[in-house]
Amino acid sequence: MTDAYGVVSRPVRLDYTFTAGKALSRFLTIIEGGKIIGQRCPKCAKVYVPARGSCPTCGVATAEAVEVKDRGIVTTFCIVNIPFPGMAVKPPFAAASVLLDGADIAIFHLLQEVPVENVRMGLRVEAVWKPASEMEMSMESIAYFKPTGEPDAPYDSYKDLL
Amino acid sequence: MRDVAVVGFAQTAYARSELELNETEMLMPVIHQALERGGIPQKEIGFTVSGSCDYLAGQPFAFVMALDAVGAWPPIRESHVEMDGAWALYEAWVRLQCGDIDSALVYAFGKSSLGDIRDVLTLQLDPYYTQPLWPDSVSMAALQARATLDAGKATEREMAEIAARSRRDARANAAAQVTGDFNADALLAERYISSPLRKHDCPPISDGAAAIVLAAGDLAQRVSKRPAWITGIDHRVEAHGLGMRDLTASASTRIAGERAGVGEGKVDVAELHAPFTHQEIILREALGLDDDVRVNPSGGALAANAVMVAGLTRIGEAAQRIIDGDANRVVAHATSGPCLQQNLVCVMEGRS
């Protein structure tokens, strides 16, 4: 009787088109050229990178484009020790929230050229861009961030932006 | 029951494919416009609730990103239903009955263009017996239309006339996507796309968003010259097995209509969420609407059918007739699921 039972696999696949929107499209177009652009909220003046067209705090549209630096502060980080499929870098490595100079929100990226035990909050880092031929409309245009060698940023300078 | 009214409504102009704006960018102007029309600043709104479906964008928790359009700081009271925005409005109405807050913002958004909407809608079916057969939304509606024709409750000509009337009326609706002066004879000469449905019997595929502001009691009187008071609202659902239902009738709409009090007065306008022409005939019967009731002056879902939005839009369009002074008593209906599985009925009245 048990022979009558079996397992049926019914894979479901749906394909989608992603609409980045006006603000993010602009960010993606510009990052391909090696620059990082955000948007400033007309009410609270915070600069969002990458901007998605609105200030989530104020609920208003953001229109003013603001270029930010490709260097900033590690506000927080984690050390990845466990490998997972498709991993681009061999563990251990550090993934960090980087608050770019001029921005009010951190982006998430990879840290390299620094031993993981030396990664710390407040570390000053800069972007290492991919060669021009490999630049694309993606955050991947930045290969990783590395320490600049500048003195660490004081905690008070970024404590509200964690 | 506490008196609650629609005081503000706004919607996008619907499009086959909104490629330029993301959901948040599409939604934000609509929310701002509804709040402005409702006369209640965003920071004074007591409760915010949205209706949308993550399967449309193919992204889990897509609705959370839409909150960027709301300004949820300092923290707000907020909720979401994975349903048409009409059910979000129902939740807001229930929440306002608690009596501690006086206003609510309800919004809905949906881009049907991002995936294959026919396939996406198939995933709402029972996953064991129906979904593996992969029936698409138009084919299921065609089964219902065939049953309705065979029962002698509709004719293909009546269906074509509903399509022609809806799209003719839609010419006066700036938000409508499919409008025009169509002739029933010409429409009937076209081929079937899923017999007995022709193209004109089916809704367009639409991207868009809508928002409604609700206010209770004194606040509604203060912010609106002529609020659209909700005198009854109810929703009912039927079995998910298509074979377990009489597809030629809508028992859930009938019960919801009775509970909402549709028959307790003259109905001036009814906005019925009937994505397929034959469904208008089924809904008219279920709600007991007289022939003189004006149905879907906006063009209805045959003029624009943003999934998750079109039901809330019916409530907004019907309410707007009252707010504008064009009607005194209106009925709005929203549907969800295949072949009118779940239905919501909302009756609204003007009092001044």
Question: Overview of this structure, please?
Answer:
- The complex is a heterodimer of chains A (162) and B (352).
- Chain A is mainly beta and 162 residues long.
- Chain A has one helix at residues 22-31; strands spanning 36-40, 47-48, 54-55, 60-61, 64-68, 71-80, 93-100, 107-111, 124-129, 142-147.
- Chain A has 2 domains: 19-68, no CATH class; 69-162, no CATH class.
- Chain A has a 5-stranded antiparallel β-sheet, with no helix packed on it. A 3-stranded antiparallel β-sheet of chain A has the order 2-1-5, with helices on one face. A two-stranded antiparallel sheet of chain A has the order 3-4.
- The termini of chain A are far apart.
- The model of chain A has no long low-confidence stretch (mean pLDDT 94).
- With 352 residues, chain B is an alpha/beta fold.
- In chain B, strand 5 (192-194) and strand 6 (197-198) form a beta hairpin.
- In chain B, helix 7 (156-169) packs across helix 11 (277-287) and helix 10 (251-260) packs across helix 11 (277-287).
- Classes of the chains: A mainly beta (162), B alpha/beta (352).
- Chains A and B meet through helix 1, strand 3 and strand 4 of A and helix 1 of B.
